[in-house]
What we know:
The structure is a homodimer of 156-residue chains. With 156 residues, chain A is mainly α. The first copy, chain A, has a single domain, classed as dinb family like domain (Four Helix Bundle (Hemerythrin (Met), subunit A)). Chain A contains nine helices and no strands. Chain A binds chain B through residues 1, 3-8, 10-11, 14-15, 35-37, 39, 111, 114-115, 130-131, 133, 135-136, 139-140, 142-144, 146-151, 153-154, and chain B through 1, 3-8, 10-11, 14-15, 35-37, 39, 111, 114-115, 130-131, 133, 135-136, 139-140, 142-144, 146-151, 153-154.
Amino acid sequence: MEQVLKQVLDGWSLQIKTANKVIESLSDEQLAGDIAPGKNSGVYLLGHLVTVHDGVLPLMGLGDKIFPEMENVFLRSPDKSGLPHPDVQTLRRNWLDINEKLNEHFAGFSLNNWMERHTAVSEEAFANEPHRNKLNILISRTSHLAYHLGQIALLK
Amino acid sequence: MEQVLKQVLDGWSLQIKTANKVIESLSDEQLAGDIAPGKNSGVYLLGHLVTVHDGVLPLMGLGDKIFPEMENVFLRSPDKSGLPHPDVQTLRRNWLDINEKLNEHFAGFSLNNWMERHTAVSEEAFANEPHRNKLNILISRTSHLAYHLGQIALLK
């Protein structure tokens, strides 16, 4: 069991490390470009990933978002909304900060912690759907990151 | 434990289901297009996913590849190599077939089966690196699929 959980966490860590490498390999100008004509920009996707990972904090009962102001522009609005947003240097730093924060929390998680319900599911629903737990958030965010990483990598 | 393993398998199944939806939503003409100027075509990525998933069979000791002839064009060669390859209708069918085959095998896997070494690692190395097991293949293929799915989705 511990081995299975360890491998899930390693899978998350590998995606974060890979994402950091890809993002660091791109210039601010490259990140400002669109991944394909008429599609999202690298900056939007980076901001989107920051706010989605930031959302894991309240979802896992680990506290409030660090960057709540980013949700409206990078999650509730499409790219090129014209809404003001942090510059790319700030987004790069926020990306490293939120993942460092999450990993600090995860380092202290026991198997029981991972099996706890996340805050988007009621105790009643959770009783019948035990998979709606914190581990499920980690697994889905790992694939979500890989999905957008495949797009950001197109900016190279 | 069983719950953790179940959630990893559900994560794989969800990516397969999502991929099937996206691929079915694209016309043959859309799949023939490039995901971005100068990047891979949808057809190449579909063939790449088929041959990578096909490679899981020998890697997990489940038998030989079903489509060995696809490895050279979709794994060892870049897109637009000019090498002959199956048409898109065949690739669509191969994609469903290989995943059905894999899921038939996985349905019979016990936790111990998932903890077994994959064939790309020696017994000696595996003794010191127990994570180089069949579960690791599943976790890495799940992220690999999500990565390319984010690209194929751009063809919509």
